[in-house]
């Protein structure tokens, strides 16, 4: 299986030596793999495995833990090795992993619940270059820095320009070091930034170096309104970038709250198509948005089985 899949990449290259290298690097990671990777070490799967006596465990595993969910990567000291290990596991099963790069300096600057990130611009550049190198030529999907282009309200012009430069650098590193990866910059959501403004920010951040952008990451807006928003962003961009919708928690739509709101439900399972290039579970269902809403004591990013069950039941 492995040599056959690699041959599909190598043999066409032998006949296309006059094509620019940027075009040769456009192999589809979907075509190179056999479905999305299910991470057995995701937080819901790990919780279910570690709590077999809990009456919620089997349901959480069946409805969430057995689904393909993106894995988020923050400030690991050996980010290249950690990413390489994860992508290698997916590759050994001929599956496509979805990864999230989440380590910008001043991360979640205005929201505050998920603060942190690299200590400097230089540290981030080193980190993101190592991230891309860890993937190498293996197929993958990467979402770059959720919220980074929406979270400008509390930043000054210097900080904004530094952020745009870092994001552009990230897109360049993936082109250089991870040629079989589809990269998507985060494009916010329908309730946050006007489409024309988001288009300007995406363009400044290097979206033309990437496959496209994501919408609705970690939010709850319905798929139809998210698609409409993404199409409006593309109209303002002046060309049709591909886009992905996070459907992990949008089954009941949004009630206007973003931090652990009640009454939400799991959305459409991960798939290609669906009026977007892909519908993905980028946010892990059951992981808290912060110490707020219906999980006031659960820090951002920590799995809460009660949040998971409420998403399954829509309560």
TrEMBL record:
Enzyme class: hydrolase
Sequence similarity: Belongs to the glycosyl hydrolase family 6.
One term of GO molecular function: hydrolase activity, hydrolyzing O-glycosyl compounds
Alphabetic keyword roster: Carbohydrate metabolism, Cellulose degradation, Disulfide bond, Glycosidase, Hydrolase, Polysaccharide degradation, Signal
Organism field: Amycolatopsis cihanbeyliensis
Biological process terms in GO annotation: cellulose catabolic process
Residues of the active site: 147, 289
Signal peptide (UniProt feature, chain positions): 1-25
Pfam families documented for this protein: Glyco_hydro_6 (PF01341)
PANTHER family xref list: 1,4-BETA-D-GLUCAN CELLOBIOHYDROLASE C-RELATED (PTHR34876:SF4), PTHR34876
Full protein name: Glucanase
EC id: 3.2.1.-
Top-rank taxon: Bacteria
Binding site for substrate: 72, 192, 219, 258, 283
